[in-house]
Amino acid sequence: MKIGIIGAGLIGGTLARRWTQLGHEVSIANSRGPETLRELAKETGAKAVTVEEAAKAGEVVVVTIPQKAVPHLPKGLFANVPKDVVVIDTGNYYPVRDGSIPELEAGTPESEWVSKLLGRPVIKAFNNIFYMSLGEKGVPKGTPGRIALPIAGDPPEHRAKVIKLVEELGFDAIDVGGLADSWRQQPGTPVYTRDLDAPGVKKALAEAERSRLSEYRKKADDSLKAFLASQK
């Protein structure tokens, strides 16, 4: 499969490594230009391209950038990209990093906001797993305790393609349904960064309460704040 990745951070770089290992043809871009991705391209076998080229690179395009960067993507980035191309959003909103985004603070699911800005349906995936787990903990189907990942978004045929990719990476995919329910896997929710198996993920998704979204967000934001302070 041909896959484009916009964003070369921890998740983007990890997906590039894993997918090239599996034989997919990966094109990866960041905001600073292809020349800054030479080392990653050499290491992974992915092709370093511009953001515009990554958006047109294949059957699946992954947008894996901070929420604050989404409004600054080139205007009309997906205007001429075929409608059957699947767009995956791995993003998470952290006010300590992204600043305050009023729509998200008011309760709009993060990926619905991203979808509106991109002008495209998106599938929310890979947002609730730590990059090291994504890179190292994939195991064959049927392995006891296999980590499961929630997948939310529309249309169903796009979701099905992402589910297949997740399974191929060594994780069970849990079909959450439409994008309206993607809030259940946002930062701080019971399913977030816990490396749960399929029954555990289903239970955690069911336990999430929409009325507690601001509480979940604050918990995740405080955790990131503490981590960033520890790195100084």
Topology:
Elements: E1 2-6, H1 10-21, E2 25-29, H2 38-44, E3 47-48, H3 51-55, E4 60-63, E5 86-89, H4 95-98, H5 102-105, H6 110-118, E6 123-124, H7 131-136, E7 148-153, H8 156-168, E8 172-177, H9 198-207, H10 213-230
Parallel strand pairs: 1-2, 1-4, 2-3, 4-5, 5-6, 7-8
Antiparallel strand pairs: 6-7
Keywords:
single chain; 232 residues; alpha/beta; 8-stranded mixed beta sheet; 8 strands; globular
Order of helices and strands: EHEHEHEEHHHEHEHEHH
What is the terminal-to-terminal distance? 41 Å
Number of helices: 10
Structural class by sheet pairing and helices: alpha/beta
Per DSSP E runs of 2 or more residues, the count of β-strands stands at 8
Estimate the mean pLDDT confidence. Answer: 97
Report on the biggest sheet: 8 strands, mixed
Query: Could you estimate the helical fraction of the residues in percent?
Result: 25-40%
Largest beta sheet: what is the strand line-up?
3-2-1-4-5-6-7-8
Low-confidence stretches: none
Radius of gyration: 17 Å
- The proportion of residues in beta strands is 5-15%
Bulk shape: globular
Structure description:
The chain is an alpha/beta fold. It contains ten helices and eight strands. The chain has helices at 10-21, 38-44, 51-55, 95-98, 102-105, 110-118, 131-136, 156-168, 198-207, 213-230; strands spanning 2-6, 25-29, 47-48, 60-63, 86-89, 123-124, 148-153, 172-177. The chain has an eight-stranded mixed sheet, sandwiched between helices. It is globular, with a radius of gyration of 17 Å.
